[in-house]
Amino acid sequence: MKRLSFLVIAIVICVTTSCKKENSNTGFSQDIKDLVPSEAMNAMRQNGMTIYEGMKPPQIEGIYLSSEHILFGSSDKDDVIGKRYADYRYQFFEQDVTDLSVKTSYKGYSTEDGSLVDQASGLGSFISGNGNFFSVFSEEHGETSEGVTYTWLAIYSGEITEDGIKNLVNSFYMKDKDDPYNKLVDIGTVRVFKDKDGVSETKGSLRISAEDKQDFANKIFSAKRMGEK
């Protein structure tokens, strides 16, 4: 009888331990659930957004460049899928492995002349994932070069590697905006973007260098020369 009792206890411990290990690979923290409503997350998924669950995300601190930054999915029927937008540098910093929080910020630069067209910082951000795969959930407040301000819910997903982030995909759900001339998409709109070549390399700063600006100038000059022929 004692042996049977010990066997039952051992099985219960084994099953409980196994369940805990399995649960760490699925689901989201309560902070993420509170931050991003299920309807917003579902809308992003329906438009092609990849989202990784789990309670053991990798370390992702750094600055990463998304170029060419391509529209992959949208809830706006007038959007052109495949259209290129500004190049973006995304920063993840002050990641906390205990409460699964992380801070975010970004800057977007014109692909024509390298000028700053958009920038934002996270008001609250949390991370999920397992192994090398992660998703960051963030509420962000931004401002365009035209003075339009906005608040949206953003998700970033990818696989962290030695070279940067592989298959970086990001999406947003427009939550609010101060946009008197209707420059931005409507509130409730979802857009999903990806880095076209699938590799978002690391950068040392959110700002672009003088060399980067010169590259933009050279590309414009070359394009004009090609147009003359």
Automatic annotation (TrEMBL):
It comes from the Bacteria. This is Lipoprotein.
